[in-house]
Design a protein that fits this description.
Distance between the termini: 20 Å
Number of helices: 10
Strand order of the largest sheet: 1-4-3-2-5-8
Low-confidence stretches: none
Order of helices and strands: EEHEHHEHHEEEHEEEHHEHEEEEH
Structural class: alpha/beta
Mean pLDDT: 93
Shape: elongated
Length: about 325
């Protein structure tokens, strides 16, 4: 899949495509329906399938001090678009100029001129342009003048309501990994480069791979059964602390997975960690001996939950 930036010339082979347009943070079931509709139409009409998304998320632009809320990084989104069958993804930088661009200008510049789009697919609640002046409905009217057609895909719902990024964030905050995974169609995954730590885990027999949380949505602090995905394709089961480590000073927000039956050096490597199941909240213990006993119990519980969980995808 090719990555486009919206500023450079679009390869001729990618013009005239079917475009899935949206923020797509999370690429959850609702987003997958939009991308899937675009890919299906593209294949049926012999046109390229292109996903158009934004980075940073518009909320981060308008509210730079908002707490971290990202469900997927740009790289993760691109991988998911590729897996869904997209031929290319245009990642538009959302800045002051884009925020001030009227909806009609956005459609003319990016959809008609730069992409030469034949058809646009959005969700029904999609808005765009200055002051959210554009909607899925107005996009069809703009397309009549600009040479493309448009459709809006219905929201996807489950037994608790419409699947949305906000519902997924709430599930994660509540430690409900299973509900989040059902809406995402995969476990919530945090990716990062393994950092050097203070080696305290190693000293008590549980060496961990330390990952900063960056702009990812913070799930409930606590202990999780996890799966780690290494760059070489290996998948490792483990147990992880996510939070500020109340037993140690200074407090620092980290994801610290300990991978079972694994003793290799991961420093400086990119690792992706799936949160499979929340075991318990973070807690302070009366000394390291009590802490190690609890970690032993947590590791046993994590192994049991991983054995009962769906296989890694």
């Amino acid at each position: 899949m090719e990555r486009l930036d919206g500023g450079s010339a679009i390869p001729a082979a990618l013009r005239g495509g079917v475009v899935a347009l949206g923020n797509f943070d999370g690429v959850h079931r609702g987003h997958q329906a939009v991308v899937g509709a675009a890919v299906t139409r593209a294949r049926a009409t012999g046109r390229p399938a292109i996903v158009c998304t934004f980075d940073p998320h518009p909320v981060r632009h308008f509210n730079p001090d908002a707490p971290p809320f990202q469900l997927t990084s740009v790289d993760q989104r691109l991988a998911l678009f590729a897996a869904a069958g997209a031929d290319a993804a245009m990642v538009l930088h959302f800045d002051t100029a884009m925020a001030a661009m009227p909806a009609a200008d956005f459609a003319a510049v990016y959809l008609a001129d730069r992409l030469g789009a034949d058809h646009i697919v959005t969700g029904r609640d999609f808005t765009f342009g200055r002051g959210r002046g554009g909607s899925a409905q107005s996009l069809a009217a703009l397309g009549a003048d600009l040479g493309f057609t448009a459709e809006a895909v219905a929201s996807v719902a489950d037994g608790a309501g419409v699947v949305s990024s906000s519902r997924i964030r709430t599930a994660l905050i509540e430690g409900d990994c299973e509900a989040a995974a059902a809406m995402l169609t995969r476990p919530y995954r945090i990716a990062g480069i393994v950092e050097h730590g203070d080696k305290r885990g190693r000293a008590i027999g549980y060496p961990t791979a330390n990952l900063g949380l960056g702009d990812y949505q913070r799930p409930a602090y606590g202990i999780y059964a996890v799966r780690g995905h290494l760059a070489d394709g290996r998948v490792l089961g483990g147990v992880a602390n996510l939070g500020i480590r109340p037993m140690f000073d200074p407090p620092r927000e980290l994801l610290e997975p300990y991978f079972f039956d694994f003793a290799e050096d991961l420093y400086g490597q990119r690792v992706e960690v799936d949160l499979i199941s929340f075991i318990r909240p973070e807690a302070r213990f009366e000394g390291l001996e009590a802490l190690v006993r609890q970690i032993d119990a947590d590791a046993a519980e994590a192994r049991a939950r991983l054995a009962a969980a769906p296989a890694a995808g």
